[in-house]
């Protein structure tokens, strides 16, 4: 092995996916994700069940990731794990595992901010694909967050816009629930929207200052609309599912881009990325291409497996922190709320 190679084991357990990845320099050797389907029956993630499933999954997932990477665990230089933000009971599992592994293997551990991880997924090697140049803007849209991030360097980021209530992923999931889809409904809205008319129904859009977002009004607007229609036709949802999904998806995308375009114009930034679970949405990906062309942006869209929660993004963030000697010690505790600002200072 080349002396300069850095091998990082990444661990992600912030919500309901248990993931382990092995990174060599900027190349992912393996990225395994154990999804917890148990939450589907409850209409959302149940924290107690999530932490228990992480506890059951973590060892097999790490084992498999190391095997698949074709390395021995002695070759790992450091273990990077998600410290936050996320569900406390879920974070504790990954953090405790990282502490044990770090002690057992006598290697450093690196406490990664999950939201920085989503952004830095863009720095994983992907053949033929350029990486964004600094400064760039990243729209991070997930189940827990909606952020317009000004990325000045790998570990220097500023959140210039955020949601004042629901996240974009929550808007998808809550709308999906109203339509009778299981959790998480975002991907199902995406699927049905492909066959629907996005202009068929109109839903309210928020009027919020600056670069901030609000999505709670949209849910209410969909709810009242459906209640009214169902009174007249009990089969309304079934008969109009595709058009409803297309219209809801298009409304969320319009809301997201209004502020994103404003931010890029104001700051005169032409490199624009998307990240987070909702960046897997096909309508959002197409809109970024189309609007990007009009605005003269160079756009960056993550590979599908690096959109939703994964340990590859934690490992790549770990690599940048490793190079700066940013290590955690055994007293490090997970944190449910964790700002991405000020980490690289
Ligand atoms: O980043 P992520 O895996 O977890 C969090 O950190 O929250 O994001 C999960 C969110 C869920 O709300 C899910 O419905 C949404 O991403 N999502 C999608 C799609 N795939 C995942 N939303 C719309 N369209 C999709 N294709
Ligand atoms: Zn996430």
Defining key terms:
10 strands; binds zinc ion; alpha/beta; 9 helices; binds 5'-O-[(R)-(carboxyoxy)(hydroxy)phosphoryl]adenosine; single chain; 345 residues; five-stranded mixed beta sheet
What does it look like?
The chain is built from nine helices and ten strands. Helix 1 (47-69) packs parallel to helix 2 (88-105) and helix 5 (186-193) packs across helix 7. The strands form two sheets. A five-stranded mixed β-sheet has the order 3-2-1-4-5, with helices on both faces. A five-stranded mixed β-sheet has the order 8-7-6-9-10, with helices on both faces. It is globular, with a radius of gyration of 20 Å. The chain is 41% helix and 19% strand. It is an alpha/beta fold and 345 residues long. The protein has helices spanning 47-69, 88-105, 114-120, 168-178, 186-193, 216-232, 236-267, 282-295, 312-323; strands spanning 7-12, 17-24, 27-35, 78-84, 109-113, 136-141, 146-153, 156-162, 271-275, 298-300.
SSE blueprint:
Blueprint lengths: L6 E6 L4 E8 L2 E9 L11 H23 L8 E7 L3 H18 L3 E5 H7 L15 E6 L4 E8 L2 E7 L5 H11 L7 H8 L22 H17 L3 H32 L3 E5 L6 H14 L2 E3 L11 H12 L22
Parallel strand pairs: 1-4, 4-5, 6-9, 9-10
Antiparallel strand pairs: 1-2, 2-3, 6-7, 7-8
Helix pairs in contact: 1-2, 3-9, 4-6, 4-7, 5-7, 6-7, 7-8
Bound molecules: 5'-O-[(R)-(carboxyoxy)(hydroxy)phosphoryl]adenosine and zinc ion.
């Amino acid at each position: 092995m080349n002396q300069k190679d850095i091998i990082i084991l990444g661990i992600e357990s912030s919500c309901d996916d248990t993931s382990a990845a092995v990174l060599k320099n900027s190349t992912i050797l393996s990225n395994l994700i154990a999804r917890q389907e148990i939450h589907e029956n409850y209409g959302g993630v149940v924290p107690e069940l999530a932490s228990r499933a992480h506890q059951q999954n973590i060892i097999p997932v790490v084992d498999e990731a190391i095997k698949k990477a074709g390395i021995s665990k002695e070759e790992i230089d450091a273990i990077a794990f998600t410290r936050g933000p996320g569900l406390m009971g879920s974070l504790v599992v990954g953090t405790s595992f990282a502490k044990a592994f770090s002690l057992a293997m006598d290697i450093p551990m690196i406490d990664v901010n999950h939201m920085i991880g989503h952004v830095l997924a863009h720095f994983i090697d992907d053949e033929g694909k350029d990486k964004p140049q600094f400064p760039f803007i990243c729209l991070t849209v997930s189940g827990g967050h909606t952020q317009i991030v000004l990325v000045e360097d790998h570990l220097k980021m500023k959140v210039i816009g955020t949601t004042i209530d629901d996240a974009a992923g929550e808007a998808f999931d809550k709308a999906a629930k109203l339509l009778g889809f299981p959790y998480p409904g975002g991907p199902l809205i995406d699927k049905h929207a492909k066959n629907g008319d996005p202009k068929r129904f109109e839903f309210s859009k928020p009027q919020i200052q600056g670069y901030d977002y609000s999505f709670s009004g949209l849910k209410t607007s969909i709810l009242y609309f459906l209640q009214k229609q169902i009174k007249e036709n009990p089969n309304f949802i079934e008969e109009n599912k595709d058009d409803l999904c297309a219209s809801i998806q298009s409304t969320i995308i319009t809301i997201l881009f209004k502020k994103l375009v404003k931010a890029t114009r104001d700051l005169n930034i032409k490199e624009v990325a998307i990240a987070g679970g909702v960046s897997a949405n096909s309508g959002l990906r197409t809109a970024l291409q189309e609007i990007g062309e009009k605005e003269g942006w160079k756009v960056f869209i993550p590979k599908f497996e690096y959109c939703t929660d994964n340990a590859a993004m934690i490992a790549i963030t770990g690599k940048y922190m490793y190079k700066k000697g940013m290590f955690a010690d055994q007293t490090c505790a997970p944190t449910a709320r964790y700002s991405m600002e000020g980490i690289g200072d």
